[in-house]
Inverse folding.
């Protein structure tokens, strides 16, 4: 959508390129939250939700990724924040959810160091505009997807398939986080919380064989250590360097970068959907990997051609992802140990199902209710085990444009008729709203 001066992001370009998304679908209108935000906020309030996490469109604020802000773009977010606060809903802002301004990609994108400095300028602009009313801030959402799916397997925008660029992008996203966090803190009240959201993987070996353990360690470094190493501990894992030594020499990590990245966090967001199960690969195995991250002839795992991915057992969602709440508990406890004293938020968790209205127009989704009950129970177990989890955000409020999957995967607790954009809360929306209001989990078979 180009209203208000917004220019194309890499996802606009990608989704308008034939063959890139399911059915050639794009997000030009999607659910039209831009025009319907008051209706959507009123629905959140009706359900009893206490917080709303949303993302800023960089190219709506800075159309070229550089220079002064376009105030009409910022005004939309000012109105949205005011509407949320008027309904007693806490806004949580994510600065970057994969939509790099196309002009910055044309200049090289995340593999180029300058992009991190452009992000810091953008962060400062938004922090100055909204920091007086928004207390919860997230710099980046799932930088792994931006780097490894955007520049490795090519199933996400900008659709490049370059192993070296993948790791360069990962480093510069880390640098963007550090510089952006510093920029936010330079212009916002000290009370505000600065975090980032990682889609850290729960990686499990198929056996305790040393080769399978080594495979799990390699994927853990590429999925997790590449980000939490420098962000939480100020260093990349040495095993990551060893695993990727035939891909890159990491010479783009400059003096001072690790200190700039290793900024103190006020919280850490964790996004979880399903665990990963890996083993050492047979030498003749090649081609696409069953890692749940889309079909591509190109791997998103540079330096890991000797690793095989396996489908974990159990029921699956429409994404083909196994439902396993124990993976969420394991992930929370890992970061409780990894960063003791750091508050945690579950910033994404949810499931896609083939939801359809019944003849009366109601949408019953008992599978999603069971999914939510299982995963929220896992969060409660983690809290009982000593984890400091401060909040949980469902992905997602509404059915939406689900990236390369277009509109065929419905993650929402609210059903959207894409022909009319009518919103219909599913049974899970009422179940989830009651959980939010009461702090207790309703029974899975409670009628709504």
């Amino acid at each position: 959508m180009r209203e208000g001066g917004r220019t194309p992001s890499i996802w606009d370009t990608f989704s308008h390129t034939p063959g890139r998304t399911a059915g050639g679908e794009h997000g030009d209108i999607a659910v039209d939250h831009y025009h319907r935000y008051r209706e959507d906020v009123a629905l959140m309030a009706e359900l009893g939700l206490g917080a709303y996490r949303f993302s800023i469109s960089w190219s709506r604020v800075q159309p070229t990724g550089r220079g002064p802000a376009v105030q009409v773009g910022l005004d939309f977010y000012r109105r949205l924040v005011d509407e949320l606060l008027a309904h007693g809903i806490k806004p949580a802002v994510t600065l970057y959810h994969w939509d790099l301004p196309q002009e910055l990609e044309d200049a090289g994108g995340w593999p180029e160091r300058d992009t991190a400095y452009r992000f810091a300028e953008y962060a400062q602009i938004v922090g100055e505009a909204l920091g007086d009313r928004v207390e919860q801030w997230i710099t980046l959402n799932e930088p792994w997807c931006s780097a490894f799916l955007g520049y490795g397997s090519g199933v996400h925008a900008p659709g490049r398939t370059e192993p070296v660029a993948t790791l360069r992008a990962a480093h510069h996203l880390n640098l963007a986080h550090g510089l952006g966090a510093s920029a936010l803190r330079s212009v916002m009240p000290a009370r505000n919380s600065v975090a980032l959201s990682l889609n850290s993987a729960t990686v499990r070996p198929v056996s305790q064989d040393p080769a399978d353990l080594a495979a799990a360690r390699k994927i853990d470094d590429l999925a997790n250590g590449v980000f939490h190493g420098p962000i939480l501990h100020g260093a990349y894992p040495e095993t990551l360097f060893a695993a990727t030594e035939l891909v890159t020499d990491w010479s783009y990590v400059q003096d001072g970068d690790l200190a700039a990245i290793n900024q103190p966090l006020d919280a850490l967001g964790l996004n979880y959907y399903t665990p990963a199960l890996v083993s050492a690969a047979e030498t003749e195995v090649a081609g696409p990997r069953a890692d749940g991250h889309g079909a591509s002839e190109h791997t998103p795992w540079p330096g890991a051609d000797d690793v095989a991915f396996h489908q974990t057992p159990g029921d699956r969602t429409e994404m083909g992802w196994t439902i396993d709440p124990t993976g969420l508990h394991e992930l929370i406890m890992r970061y409780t140990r990894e960063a003791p004293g750091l508050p945690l938020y579950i910033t994404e968790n949810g499931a896609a199902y083939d939801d359809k209205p019944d003849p009366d127009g109601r949408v019953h989704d008992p599978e999603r209710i069971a999914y939510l009950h299982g995963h929220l129970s896992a969060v409660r177990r983690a809290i009982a085990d000593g984890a400091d989890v401060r909040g949980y955000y469902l992905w997602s409020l509404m059915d939406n444009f689900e990236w390369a999957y277009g509109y065929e995967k419905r993650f929402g607790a609210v059903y959207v008729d894409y022909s009319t954009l009518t919103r219909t809360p599913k049974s899970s929306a009422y179940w989830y709203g009651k959980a939010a209001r009461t702090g207790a989990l309703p029974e899975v078979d409670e009628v709504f």
Notes: The radius of gyration is 21 Å. Residues 433 and 439 are 10 Å apart (CA to CA). The mean pLDDT is 97. The longest strand covers residues 90-96.
